[in-house]
Amino acid sequence: MSNSRSVIKGLKLKNQKGLNAQDIANEIEKGFLAKRRPDKDWVEKTTFAPSTIAYGHGTCARYWHIVFKGLDTYADNTDAMGVANMSLGSVFHDEIQDAMKHAGMLVEAEKEIKIQSPPIRGYLDAIVKIDGEDVVAEIKTTRQESFAFKELSGKPSANHLIQLLIYLKATGLQRGFLLYVNKNDQTFLVIPVELDEVNDKIIEDVFTWLRTVRKAFDDGQLAQIPFTRARNAGEPTNKICRGCPVQQTCFARSTEGDVFIPLMEVPKV
Question: 41 forms bridges with which residues in the sheet?
Fold first, then answer.
């Protein structure tokens, strides 16, 4: 477990002879890791996933080409901390959606969205009614440090912004908001987002990159690994590659590929 983040960094057990804090922590870690999705055969994907598009391996054209192709095994490389975060995030999502329902503001939860070009499919958290207007709501949990930065700047994470803008484009709605939940003390932060001229330019640039990626795939061209060191070494040498669920398949194939497509330029917000 030395290469992954620990859920329990250390336990101090006073006056409890015979108990080893690290052994206890290790067993709990195993429990979280056991909750990971099992490695599975490829299910061929035909669309981009909104929550993956602008973060980590989702900015790599080669990743999308491999999941579109449908080969070998998909490995969940999420560490124990990541599994714990996702589990807690799901609890917060459910509770907040339930609160929206009881407030009488919930129009629809977990609404499926589809866009044809570029091909995108996903599920937004909620559409709510505010002052008679339908508005898209996206719920995110975050650590105290990230929450404090967003609270101070009034700005969301770029990948979260792009995800919400995709939902606005797909639904034809003009306004939405990101609801951040501080995992430390369960306080909320609401950041409104509007599909104005600036944000429309941001999402159209993203769509242009996605269309380029999909066209190359449709033309039978496999994207190169975008990292020079990784191409030369033939092994994961950076954070994006190490955490990528298609890493084994990617490096088992030719690292050169047919076409070079740079990483998606995620805008600074």
Answer: 73
Q: Where are the domains of the chain?
A: 1-34, 39-269
Query: 73-74 and 175-182 as β-strands: parallel, antiparallel, unpaired?
Result: unpaired
Residue type, 181: V
42 exposure class (CB count in 10 Å sphere: 0-12, 13-18, 19+):
middle
What pLDDT, in 10s, does the model give residues 112-145?
Answer: 999 999 999 999 999 999 999 999 999 999 989 9
DSSP string, 199-235: HHHHHHHHHHHHHHHHHHHHTT-PBPPS-HHHHHHTS
| 77's tokens | 């490389």
Rg (CA), the chain: 21
The verdict on pTM exceeding 0.70 is yes
| Residue 268: HSE in the Cβ half-sphere, 13 Å Cα cutoff | 1
User: Residue 128: which of 94, 159, 153, 97 has the closest Cα?
Assistant: 97
Cα–Cα distance list, 4 to 20, 33, 232 (Å): 21, 11, 25
Task: Report helix, strand or coil for 171.
Answer: helix
On the 0-12 / 13-18 / 19+ scale of CB atoms within 10 A, 176 is buried
Which residues are CB-contacts of 169 (< 8 A; sequence separation ≥ 6)? 115, 195, 203
CATH number of 39-269: 3.90.320.10
